[in-house]
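Recall the central idea of this unit: under ordinary conditions, the amino acid sequence of a chain determines the structure it adopts. In this exercise we apply that idea directly, starting from the sequence alone.
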Amino acid sequence: MAIPRLLVVDDDAETRSMLTQFLQQSGFIALPAESEAEIRAHLQSGRIDLILLDVMLGQENGVEICAQLRAEQDVPIILVSALSQDHQRMAGYEVGADDYIAKPFNPQLLLARAKAVLQRARRSPSLVYRRKTALFRFGGWRFDAKRGEVLSPEGYQVALSQRERELLKVFLANPHIPLTRDEIQAALDVTREGESTGGAGASAGRAIDMLVGRLRSKIEADPKEPQMLRTARGTGYVFAVDVQAEEAG
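Accordingly, the structure predicted from this sequence is:
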C-alpha cells in the first residue's frame, strides 16, 4: 500500500510547518501549500489522497475553493477553521467537504479524523480525475482521455476497446490503491452514467478478470509477469506505478 500523500493548505507559515511536520512524523507524506494555485499545481503533478484545507486563506476562501475542487474531482477534503458555529460547518458540508474540524484542535484528533476519511476514500474508488482530465502519463505511456488514444513508451499507438479504456481510467484514477472486483465494477458502472450489471457476483468477477487480462496483453511488456497492473493477493488488482494527470485548458 502506498503511503498516503496529504496536502496541508494554510496561509500561516508557522501553522503550515507545524502540521506538515506532525503528519510526516505520523507516517504520512505531507506537502505544504498556501493558495488555490499551489493546490492545483500539486494535484496536476502527482497523487494527492487528502487535502487539509484552512477556510480562511488571506484573500481566498477555503469553502469556495472546496466547492470548485469538488465540481472537478473527488479528492477527499477536510476543512479546518476557527469558524465553528453550526451554520459555518453546514456551509462546508454543503459544498462537499468530507469533514470539518474546528480550531484549536488536538493534533491526535485531527490525525484520527484524517485516517477515517482516508479509509472511506480507499474503499470507494470513484474517479478522482474526472471530466476535465485530458491527459494521463504513467510508466512512459501516454493516455489522451479526450481522444481515447494510448501511446506506448516507444511512441506507437495501442488500440483499446471502449471498455478497456474505461478500465484503464479507473486504475489511472486510483494508482497504488488495491481495488476489489466489486469496486472496479462499481467504478465502471459510474463511467456509464448509472448503467448497472447488478454488482460483481461470480460471473461479473470473471468478466473483470478477463477484461484485466485483455488490458494487460496490450500495455504490459510481459502480461504473465505484469509490472503495472498487478494482482493484489486477497483483494483484486492494483495499478502499481505513479500517474500524472493534466487537466483540459
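Residues 202-219 form the longest helix (18 residues).
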